[in-house]
Amino acid sequence: MKITRITAWEVPLTSHETYYMAEGKTCDTTLSVVLRLDTNSGLSGWGEVCPIPHYLPAYAKGVIPALEEMAPVLIGADPVGPDALMERLNKHLIGHDYAKSAIDTALWDLTAQAAGLPLYALLGGRAAEDMPLYHSITCVAPEDMARMAREAHDLGMRQFQVKLGADKDWQADVARLTLVRETVGAGPLVYGDWNCGADALTATRAGRAVQHLDIMLEQPCATIAECAHVRAATGLPMKLDESAHDIHSILAGHQAGCMDAAALKLSKMGGLSAMRRTRDLCLALGTQMCIEDTWGSDITTAALLHLAASTPARGLMNTCDLSHYVGPRLDPSAPSRRNGRIAPPEGAGLGVTPDADALGQAKTIID
Question: What is the per-residue DSSP string for 263-332?
């Protein structure tokens, strides 16, 4: 089997509700790039990447130029066994992992289709019938965030990410964490996420104010060293996100003692090939994982669900159905959350096929 054509679409995805985060970060309408790799066997593999602004060194408009740069390596290549081809791409174009993540997803889709197996079978086998989800709550007034938490709790959600720092008021952040914790009651996981938007002193003050509650903190500061300081000063468990982007950073977070959990994201790590290796390292280290991505719709969500489904329960904190937060749905038949949990698609490969009307006009075709 050989790759014969690369087609890409730029698809605007609009959040059902604008997400406000620390340091003025917002997520409203973002550009997702959808990729299809066609082969001479008649099989096609799908990938997607949706970098949100101000989060990673990534730029949605940079994806297609990167694809054009990598096209000579891809066209005519055998897609089966993604690791070998991704190694060639990494030598051909250094960096640009976010663009490579869409290619890697499409290669895994093709490999699993060629084997006639669902993708999770190639990523370690199915470890769970369905997986727990977390619900992300935009940083607005504390009372409104508590209402959103209650609504999600009524629908079966039991893990809640509370965005913090949008108004640079640490006492308001304390109120956000307190009200959400009180609203969902004992048991559910609640964690406050600054997205690197706090200094160590501010995060420590907020953390100490909620020490009596069952709360986890997520990436308050920009560096692992600062996060380790907050972890030690507050005694609260911590999840790393922005700082956890490859094998070396995972090891650094573990050694610093501030990585009770880690967010593994496809576009941060360059796709499923690298993310699977990082997943296995986290399992060895005893680190809980959130298997997710920056943003996206049904293709990205399907890739996450297959990796999450193949992850032993001892290492999986949660996963994410990104397509729940945005419109349009690229494949309306793709899985949706139910009672706070979600299952991977059925069928060979990723198990999703985007609707042509949702994609719109192709931006580029390389053959």
Answer: EEEHHHHTSHHHHHHHHHHHHHHT-EEEEE-SS--HHHHHHHHHHHHTS-TTTEEEE--GGGTEES-SST
Is residue 61 part of the annotated active site? The answer reads: no
pLDDT at site 22: 82
Count of Cβ atoms closer than 10 Å to residue 136 Cβ = 21
Q: Which of 100, 163, 239, 268 is catalytic?
A: 163
Closest to 266 measured CA to CA, from 322, 217, 218: 322
DSSP state of 80: S
**313 confidence band (pLDDT: 50, 70, 90):** very high
- Among the options 25, 100, 239, 265, which is catalytic? 265
Round to whole Å and give the CA distance between 200 and 219: 11
Q: For this structure, is 265 an active site residue?
A: yes
- Name the pairing type of β-strands 341-342 and 131-132: antiparallel
Instruction: Give CA torsion, residues 155, 160, 166, 167, to 10 deg.
Output: 90
